Amino acid sequence: MTNFGFPFRLDGRGRTAGADADDHVKQLIEQLLFTSPGERINRPAFGTAVRQLVFSPLSDEIASATQFIIQGALQQWLADVIQVNAVEVRAVDSRLQVTVQYVVRRTQQRQVTQITREV
């Protein structure tokens, strides 16, 4: 099975860009985190409210709420792909830093994905 690259783009040959298995899982996490609920027509509950939280004043409370939202969404939407071990959210200056530690169910390999967004 071919995994499409995210964001959708064309490769050097003019074909749809693909992603290897590890990159695909990381891209699934990123898609989930930065899709707002209601954005997908056939899956209105898919996504998180992280994009809205990013524009709130950064604080430990916002980081804690974001961590709770992310962990719940990962377990709801990607439980068949990954087992979430830990989610850490830190507000650093004007950046929101999200670290997800997980095990890929297919390979049983531990992975860490870190995503940082500027506010």
What's the short story on this structure?
The protein is an alpha+beta fold and 119 residues long. The chain is built from three helices and three strands; from the N terminus they run H-H-H-E-E-E. It has a single domain (21-118), classed as Nuclear Transport Factor 2, Chain: A (Roll), CATH 3.10.450.
General description of the model:
The protein is built from 3 helices and 3 strands. It has one domain: Nuclear Transport Factor 2, Chain: A, CATH 3.10.450.40. With 119 residues, it is α+β, with helices and mostly antiparallel strands. Helices cover 30% and strands 26% of the residues. A 3-stranded antiparallel β-sheet has the order 1-2-3.
